[in-house]
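The protein record quoted in full:

***
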Amino acid sequence: MLFFFTIIILFYSCIYLKQFPYYCSSEMRLLSLFLLKDLSFLAIPFSLYYLPLKMAFKNKCISSKVSNFAINGENRVNSPSGSCNIAQMCLLDLPDLVLECILERLPPDGLCSMSSVCSSMRERCVSDHLWKKHMKQKWGKVIGPAAYREWQWHIVCKNESSFFNQAKEKGLLNYLANLFPVSLVRLGCNNDGSNSMAMKTKNYPPVDSVMSWYLALESGKFWFPAQVYNRENGHVGFILSCYDAELCYELKTDTFQARYPPHGRRAVPIETGVTWDRVRSAPIDTSPYDLHTSDCLNELRPGDHIEIQWRRNKEFPYGWWYGIVGHLESCDGNETYCLCPESDMVALEFNQYAPGSRWRRTIISRKYHKEEGNEADGFYAGIRKLHGGGEISTWKHLFPAAVLE
């Protein structure tokens, strides 16, 4: 019966092969080969068929022994019978706590290498708790909520693409597998029922794992949103500012490539060679085109360090500019008699510009603050007060050696 069924498939595949699409015709050839293979499978006893699998598994376990944890092969120990054997220890024989401590001390490339030893080691090495530490150490200062959302969207798109690719790959073979659900028609599936696409990707970490995110960042294949200090190679028009951009990492140079939002009709500016000290994650999760709601205006006092949104005109995105709260003109600067904190107006100073420059100083309202300005001087918007010494020291490090006119 089975032989007759095979002959029919071979006969009709030869006659109607040209009538199938190109992907179906190749699958018909595979179908014939699988059926012939299954005929030989029936002629072999069940235990003999699985013997090679057992031998392969045994060899795989032997190959998983790591030399760093094995006693030197030249050192031999005497067995109770008096013969000499090579004493070796398999890494997987170690207690779980010891093994976890070893893996936690491995660098990212070491974890990648260990993950290829065997399936059991791979499950351990791709674990999120091992990679979260490496992610925080290297990428913590430049990755923020916006980058995480972008990565989640990247996962969704990748899963959808993988779904359609699998559907195309299965094609006619999957249809026949559903039509004849017998063990003989495996049709590109493995013994555990997984398809060939899963076999191709079995050596890759899960797409939604921290390891995948780390490797995507490291390889430069993933563009993520962040902010860049002194954009466009420290152009004089952007000194002591920080603008939103999309970045990707360049491993060879250990720098970033940045793409900035378009400014009006200008082409999208692209900058290369952006160093780590010029990149940060956005401190406020807001669009560069949206006004930030200031919640610190009543707290501002002379000497406070701030960042304020500013843009050249309505078509441009906001950038964050560094400034200091100054004294009003009615105040002589004497801290004992200073009434500036009680005033409804706040003076902001940008000391990178020379005294008398139109960019040096501006006045805003505490109570009715909104976007203020004009096409000549630009538009000032939301304000955030700097509390951490790290942010202030970064701005001071970027302060120009000479004032700007």
The longest strand covers residues 241-250.
